[in-house]
Amino acid sequence: MELKEDSLFEAYDETRRALTGIPALIAAGTVSFDPLHALAATPMTAGEADNVGARLTRQIRPRAPKILRSKIDQNFAVLLMRSSYNALDKIDCVAMDQFQRDFFLIRQAEYQPYVNQLGPGVVQQGMLTDPNYFDFISFAQYTTINREINANPPLVFEEQEPENAGEDEPQKFVTKVVKRDPLLTNDLLAKEHSKLVGIDIIDKLNENFGSTALQIPAIPRKFDADAILASLSRLAKLFVLNGFAMGADVSISKIKGPSEIQYRIILKSPANLWSGMALQQIKADPLNCFLLKAATELVNRSGFIVSLSSVKYQQNQEITFMTIR
């Protein structure tokens, strides 16, 4: 059975402030937002999501690629979307009811222009296994995440949490005060978000493949360039096997010293090809470069660090460079 977008939002129940059905409540006008609450980014309006600036940005945005791409494994697609949502929830920089509302308005405004580029019948709306739809919804999610993270969010704010209600009763919300760890300052939010996403991806891959022939080889504590290469290669292969890309190539790009090496990871026709380019164009931070997030966590767990990294998109490829020491 195909996993639809509505099922994704239901899957968010693992978070401590999970919210379901927000888009429908917004459309019905049953959710209100008190402007006196301490908010980070001002709650988005439909007009802002589709104003002149938004339309101009669409005109100069990279066009959606009309290329053959793999069908994504539904559990892996959910993992990438859910981990990104959960990470935002954990870093406590925005009320998650506001995020859901902003996310709804952004994807509502951006969907038809995106579909028009690809043509009728190409995008399977709501199907996370469709790489064309995943590319779009990941762009909308990370556009919203960037809006919330980079708006000088307060350390303390209020959030509306849903209460348990009967099947035929209207949804009710209660106000909760959320306090972020003061050590997690605003300049650290994007980095922490990427770290948490990487943790979730590696944890799930180890859970699913750790006792199989496809397990990710452990990186020894003593710096071993070939062992790191083998580990990164297996990670990239798992992304391919889960349908995120049609192929992968991992190699040593440059030897900077006996214990400092630059690696290059290429994903061919990845599911984030268009969204990655579009997010880079607006200088988004964090980006939806899921392989880099996972690879960084994999390296960190072995006691090494990624001292420098970059991602670029060209010729239908995502090319990641990582300097590890």
Question: What is shown here, in short?
Answer:
Helices cover 44% and strands 16% of the residues. The chain is an alpha+beta fold. It is globular.
- Count every beta strand, where a strand is a DSSP E run of 2 or more residues: 6
Summarize the biggest pleated sheet.
Answer: 4 strands, antiparallel
Number of helices: 11
The helix/strand series, from N terminus to C terminus, equals HHHHHHHEEHHEEHHEE
- Give the N-terminus to C-terminus distance in angstroms: 44 Å
* Uncertain segments: 9-38
Main structural class: alpha+beta
Helix fraction by DSSP (H/I, runs of at least 4): 40-55%
> Oligomeric form of this entry?
single chain
Query: Average pLDDT across residues?
Result: 89
Please state how the strands of the largest beta sheet are arranged side by side. 3-4-6-5
What do you see in this structure?
With 325 residues, the chain is of the alpha+beta class. Helices cover 44% and strands 16% of the residues. The chain contains eleven helices and six strands. The protein has a four-stranded antiparallel β-sheet, covered by helices on one side. Strand 5 and strand 6 (317-324) form a beta hairpin. Helix 5 runs antiparallel to helix 8 (189-209) and helix 9 (225-241) packs antiparallel against helix 11. It is globular. The termini are far apart. Mean pLDDT is 89; it is low at 9-38.
